[in-house]
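To assess whether the prediction recovers the assembly geometry, we first specified each molecular entity separately, as shown.
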Amino acid sequence: MTMVYDDLGDEAAAEVPMRRIRFTINGAKKVAEIEPRLLLADLIRRGVGLTGTHRGCDTTNCGACTVLVDGQAIKSCTMLAVQVDGREVTTVEGLASASELHPLQEGFKQEHGLQCGFCTPGMMMAAKALLDRNPNPTEEDVRWALSGNLCRCTGYQNIVKSVLWAAKKLEAGA
Amino acid sequence: MFPSRFRYEAPHSVDEAISLLHDGGDDVKVLAGGQSLVPMMKLRFASPEMLVDINNVPGLAYHRADPDGTLRIGALCRHADLEFSDLLKGTQPTMAAAAPLVADPLVRNRGTLVGSLCHADPQGDWASVMLALGASVIAQGPTGRRAIPVAEFVTGPFENALAHDEIAVEAVVPQAKGARSGGYLKLERRVGDFATVGTAVAIETSGGTVVRAGIALTGVGGATIGCTEAAAALTGKPLTADRIAEAADLAASAAQPKTDHRGTAEYKRQLVRVFVSRLLGGSLAADTAAASERAA
Amino acid sequence: MTTTADESRALDEIKIGGLGASRKRVEDDRFIRGKGNYVDDIVLPGMLHMEILRSPLPHARIKSIDTSKAWALPGVRLVLTGEMMATRNLAWMPTLSYDTQAVLATDKVRFQGQEVACVIADDPYIAKDACELIDVDYEPLPPIMNPWQGLAEDAPVIRDDKVNQADNVVYNWEVGDKTGTDRAFAQADVISKLELHYPRSHPSPIECCGSIADFNRATQKLTVYMTTQAPHIIRAAVAMVAELPEQMIRIVSPDIGGGFGNKVPIYPGYVCSILASILLERPVKWIEDKTGNLISTGFARDVYLKGEMALRKDGKILGIRMHTDADHGAFFSDAQPSKFKIGLMHSAFAAYDIPVAHLTARGVYTNKAPGGVAYRCSFRVTEAMFFQERMVQAAATDLGIDQAEFRRMNFVRDDDFPHRTPFGFLTDSGQYAKCLEVGLKAIDYENFRKEQAEARKRGRLLGLGISTMTEPLGAGNSREYDILGIKMFDSAELKIHMTGKAILRTGAKTQGQGHETTWAQIVAHELGIPAEDIVVEEGDTDTAPFGMGTYASRSTPVAGAAVAMVARKIRAKARKLAAHLLEVSEEDIEWELGRFYVRSSPQRGVSIQECAMAAYSNMPDGMEPGLENTAYYDPPNLTWPFAVYIVTVEVDPETGVWDVLRMVAVDDCGVRINPMIVEGQIMGGLTEAYAMASMQFITFDADGNCVGSNYMDYLLPSAWETPGYELHSEVVTPCPHHPIGAKGIGECAAVGGPAAFVNAVMDAISETGVRNIDMPVLPDRVWEALKYRRDVSGAPPIRQD
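The predicted structure of the complete assembly is given in tokenized form:
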């Protein structure tokens, strides 16, 4: 792989501490040379080029950046990219298989769980983590599990229905 | 939005971490959950020169009870581990009530109780819970371990008693002397909000008498407030409605709230009174139920 | 003449995704895969990144700016200051309300968060680092944090940049009949008064604003990818501000992560990114952070009301008097029809049969971000309807008349349309009493009142709040409505390909409303082409027909109408092609969904697809080939949906915390193109209503610091706090003047909803005699009202120790 950068001089380059990490993202193995201060959300969006994970706020509130790290739903804007060294990252782009959508993706479409779509990837990843832990959630369980993900368009009611739709489909398929 | 530059190390043992802190200079911070530190760094309210990330140190993610009932919480035990803990639900009512109220579900997947105590945010929920339970923090440094009671652990807003080359490796809740009751009530305007008022109440009763009481407050002063007078008023006697009212008043007096966009000082004091009453009322009801069960 | 049932080959409209079909959304396919194309997702070769340095002070003179250290940081390409912008005449720009606004501050900063400088660098992290290295020397000035401070005798003049601005007044405006209103008040049995503040709020879509400006020196063309709800307005504005030729400007609005009016104005960040790209000849991306968005972009509301209602003792409303003071921030930059300084505030009370009214309005400059018209407000109609329903609640209470009965007795009657409101609007149609009946039945009104009385005896505080309103949508007719002189029509261009598939482009710009799905449904309705055969595009000024964008719930009423009209133009041409194919004259041709047929022998017909093919391969002599057209729609009037929102709550008297028990919404928005999408819009609006009523606002402390400039302080409810909704769609009163009878719905619930929540809490604590608690009705305010039995104001500055 050939990469070309602007030459800012050796002194400037020396001031920037870099680290090499290896990680897996949606099943693909990657190597990256990055600054420790790079946020995971930016590694995903600008480094790997997967823009389905979104940046929505600057105080770790909105959850639009939610991804799974080793199966745990976390806010990727509040994790350093270097912290996924040796770990597995799953983003919205990793939900569907080659041939099918994940039931969550289907559910969001069936139950009109999205409007502008900006919070949707984060919602689905948080919902996936919920369903992995609790395949048969109540409405209350879903609302609680998604209480770290903000939406301005839908009013949440259809998001809850979408997740319950997916839960039902997963149970049926299981 | 983006932190300023820093050096980063990710040790694989506690000793290695301590060594990095020892040699690292003045401006080194330990990174565990990062759910308080990283947001501060992104807003550039904190710009440490180096971060020592302890997430790769094995053997710190536990929480368990010793045979005598002492509860030990490792440095990498996440809030979520505590929220879903059957052990806590069965034996630690104050902690079990507080765990779901810390931040939001995603933050709870990363944030740690020990880290929260070290961060020493006056608005932190765990500090008042741990204070009410009489807990301690175990610090480990180059010369060994020491136990620091939570009351002495927080030395100021965002300041703790650790030496620059010490790491907090565990929080310890001492064994109960009686049956535990209590809880944590928090007025938050929505999930993830800091407390307008948070109240931790931890009671231990034996033979109808309160053998230990702890009451601590979040959000009504420059630091977590331990209501020692209120606790003392309850200790050594049976729990009654009158004593509850007295304790609630004493707790409200111990509070040092400020009037701000979350409400007037008077309102916050009132919430302390109401929350302490409700939590102690819950203990009384549990007590009464247990007593009638014994009588039956 | 129609065919008999067994001969009809009309397509099933629902099956082909026509009107009334809850068609699943086309746009979902990319969003659920994480393949949306939002501005920040776009990467152009050689792209640089821009970050803005903002003022920490609300009001201060700039003594000096030292950017030398920023320039020296490796990776920095350009540092712009107001002084540099001024040399190109770009330090100030015109606003959509005929005022001027600073792009980068020159002499003074006039609000906390105002743009002072910007850095363009290789990487956004470096751009941020460089901003931190810029040294600005400020000389603080006393800050004005509310209109009263601004109107005080000795108040400093904020806009000392304007010639002839001697004070902080932006405008004085009035509408209505003062003499007639005074007479009505003189004759009143009871005068009900109410004063309150509708607090400053912010639309806060999750996606912040941003742009990528790409000036190509070789082609002289400027392309700007931008988070904008109105790309054509932007193109016109950029042509004016940047003095570039209009045909060489292309504005592309890709996927937008929520607009709600926040993405209508032109922000300094856009202008700086454009200038930077021209100077550097490279694409420049600016994406703001949430703090920048909340502290500096178009806020909403912040209006004070003094309202009075003249009443006859039997409950008839005789007249209305309103005075509003609007806190406009430091620049008057609202996007609203230019004739109306306070937007459509005078649409208040349109649902009630009131003979006379008078409104005076004043705008005041303060040291805060500019704006006011935003956040699903339909041009200040949120304020109008909130004030209306709070005044109605107070009046019913003052008269001792039941809240529902008071409204019912004053409603405009079904047979009274078109109805002239006291402020001169003409409402189109409605069945107000029926909607109210549906709502009261759904909430089980009688029983609730009994339950409430019983509960009160046991110390529990239950409350019920009603809000009813009709609001003007679909701005607007060219006689009365324009923005910067441009009339507010909209457009649709439809091209039918030879195989009968189609592409439709409009001048609207969806930000989640589902236009890609719903516009196709209108075409399916008019032409019988299955909706899935129609692709819909919006947002690129090079290809989209000219439109005034999507906000104020105007798209279904205006752009949607244009879609229907262009489809009808196409059907008219297709009819001629059908006649030619069927070898009969046009008078013998009939239409049923998807098909033309011969009246005298209905089994002889041709499909619309066959007509399309004929337009390319078999047209009659003298006919222009092809099957495409454009329609520009100048609406004859506004449309007037009606809604009834009813909320029940329980208030905890010890803590002031209140919980929603039930929320019933009855919306009559005329014909619903896609019921599923309409319901989604209503639920979104209700959630914003709940947010404003319960927790969400921007305020300021005495020093002028903004409280609510990030999500720690600006509280948006999550799925946990947000109540569930019971939606009712039984009442459908079509709009008589809209081609498909639709009225629009996007903002109704945000307009009518807040009062329902507030009225419910006020009802719960009615024994205290408290008339008003300002929104958000926070627990501490409720507690204070209960304890001290007095009104609670939330106006800034906040109380502090």
